[in-house]
Amino acid sequence: MTPHLDFLSIVVSDMAASTAFYRRLGLAFPEGSDGESHVEATLPGGIRVALDTEAVIRSFYPEWQASAEGGRIGMAFRCADAAEVDSVFADLTEAGYEGELKPFDAVWGQRYAVIKDPDGNGVDLYAPL
């Protein structure tokens, strides 16, 4: 048997801010879940993305400490084309999210950008050129 990615968990400080951010990237969290301590969205390929509050993590791992610099997970969202990378980046920065790396044509053949989620995690946006 070969393991396959099934579940991705992101530790968040503010559930409402995080669900709003990831909804803008197309994840469908249940309505009314902004005040929950754990929410999940299932992607088209079946992978589940969960957001867990710091409090819920501490409930089963009391010694856990949040990093002040983010870096709680890394992920990339593939866009349809270079224009969509630019458009999504612009939408998110105009909505007040911090752009870490403005869109550029990378030497490895992708349009690439990085935006920060509400907890400081870098979220990559890319599309083949």
Low-confidence stretches: none
Order of helices and strands: EHEEHEHEEE
Q: Which structural category do the helix and sheet elements fall into?
A: alpha/beta
Shape: globular
- Give the CA-CA distance, first to last residue: 35 Å
Report the sheet with the most strands, covering strand number, pairing sense and barrel closure.
Answer: 4 strands, mixed
Number of helices: 3
Quantity of strands, as a count: 7
How many structural domains can be distinguished in the coordinates? Answer: 2
> So, CATH architecture of the largest domain?
Roll
CATH class descriptor name of the largest domain: Alpha Beta
**Helix content class:** 10-25%
The chain-level mean pLDDT equals 90
Adjacency order of strands in the biggest sheet? 4-7-6-5
What integer value in Å does the Rg equal? 15 Å
Overview of this structure, please?
This protein is of the alpha/beta class and 129 residues long. The protein folds into two domains: 1-64, 2,3-Dihydroxybiphenyl 1,2-Dioxygenase, domain 1 (Roll), CATH 3.10.180.10; 74-129, 2,3-Dihydroxybiphenyl 1,2-Dioxygenase, domain 1 (Roll). 23% of the residues lie in helices and 33% in strands. The strands form two sheets. A four-stranded mixed beta sheet has the order 4-7-6-5, covered by helices on one side. It has a three-stranded mixed beta sheet with strand order 1-3-2. Strand 2 (38-42) and strand 3 (48-53) form a beta hairpin. The mean pLDDT is 90.
